[in-house]
Amino acid sequence: MILLMLACSGDAVPPESQPSDSASESRPDSEIEQLTGCSSDERVTVGTDTCVLEATCSWSGSVSRAYFGNNLATGQDVDGDGRDDVLIGAPGTMVYGDTEAFSAAGEAVLLSGASLDGDGALGANLLGGEVNQYMGSATAFVGDVDGDGVSDMLIGAMGSTVGALDDAGAAILVLGGPGETLTASATWTGGDAFGRAAWAMTGADIDGDGLSEVFITDGIKDEEDDYLEGRVHVWMGGMHSDAPLADADVVLSSGASRSGFGQAMASGDFDGDGVDEVAISSPYAASYTGQTWVVGQDLALSFSFLGEETYEIPGWKLAAGDLDGDGADELILGAPLNDTADDAAGQVRVYAGGASFFDEPTLAGSFNGERHDFQLGSGLATGDLDGDGDDELLMGSVNTYEGFVTKGGRIYVAGAEDLGVGVSAATLSRNVNGASVKDYIGASMGVGDLDGDGTGDLVIGAGYENLDGAYDVGAVHLFFGGI
């Protein structure tokens, strides 16, 4: 007898979970019936104890351990049709060349928002071309880098071999615009063996010239997978060509050994002056208390603030969004191992944006995880889900349990009305639960207006979701805005 461990139920029933040739295509496992679009015209929104399987639209990977949806980017229009799109990473995808297969070569896939007017089919993709390249290990929409009026994107391949350097990693710039393929415009390669370049990436127009700068992490890990000092390489806006990351216009480093500088980044206008800044986390700095830096046009590491307790890994994830509608973005910091409510229950802290941001960060609110090891703050995103003009805050808690289902994961939704210091996530009325054991939802999510109705839609990546008896195929689920 097979016992199904379900945290929630929907239209589909998931299976039981248990704890060089040129690349040309990825091929699905014959036994997997992929999720390929929208199942009905019903517009499912997020409510109380919503199941991820209730989503109107879902897409999945094609092979075991593809980890489809392990990460994603949304909230910008990269194909120029006026609708926000989604870039999905599937870093474990098997890719086939003319005479051999490349395991975990990886893939990044674009979902055009306009496709929801039809069958919601996935669109252009970019495939890896070597074993364990992990194409799609990170994804980012970075704004308009080249000045053509269309947002551009970055795709990480942290396992890329560079010369004799294993796992040096690479970041691939793909320029936005209409088209049926994703084509590399520039490839920036890492300079350290096992440094895993493109671990984190973001884009922001920090000098106000209308062109986005891009920020790319490198040198963050060693061969034993331990954290190193880390560096963030900055390329100024404009046209670019292939180059080592070491040749970037600016290289940022905190100087603190094994601090994990560049673990996460987020861009936003924190002081409300109309020009973006970039926050960069260093969760193991300051004797494991953690440190978050914010840089502006001068790209100087002159402003930072520390975590609140040792080993809480503050800044594991970062986000930015205008939660209170004052025109300045709040900076949101996830500390998933914070012990305030219980051991590793996790905490999310919200620092108020405004003209005084760089004088003294003000804690506008904090949310505590519900129970031991829930790890609130293991994922973060913002966006306007209800159309009121203010962003909502989405907080992931990857290790939640529901009944007998452990580590299904949960995403909580909070609005400005929920802000307060020391708020328990248990009091938030809107959430989405993972479907089965070890789905770990909450690490990968974003908000974008895919259907063009002026309200943001919630896109959830479930990179460890199982399908048709195949493990860790991964899936992406869409809930429409209007909560």
Structure in words:
There is one protein chain. With 483 residues, the chain is mainly beta. Helices cover 1% and strands 33% of the residues. It has 1 helix and 36 strands. The protein has one helix at 285-288, and strands at residues 36-38, 50-51, 57-60, 71-74, 86-90, 95-96, 101-102, 107-111, 125-127, 135-143, 152-157, 170-174, 184-189, 201-204, 213-218, 231-235, 243-244, 250-252, 265-268, 277-282, 291-295, 304-306, 317-321, 330-335, 347-351, 363-368, 376-383, 392-397, 401-402, 405-406, 410-414, 423-424, 430-433, 444-448, 457-462, 475-479. The strands form 9 sheets. It has a 5-stranded antiparallel β-sheet with strand order 1-3-36-35-34, with no helix packed on it. The chain has a 5-stranded mixed β-sheet with strand order 2-33-31-28-27, with no helix packed on it. Strands 10-11-12-13-17 form a 5-stranded mixed β-sheet, with no helix packed on it. Strand 6 (95-96) and strand 7 form a beta hairpin. The longest helix is centred in the middle third of the chain and has 4 residues, at 285-288. The radius of gyration is 21 Å and the shape is globular.
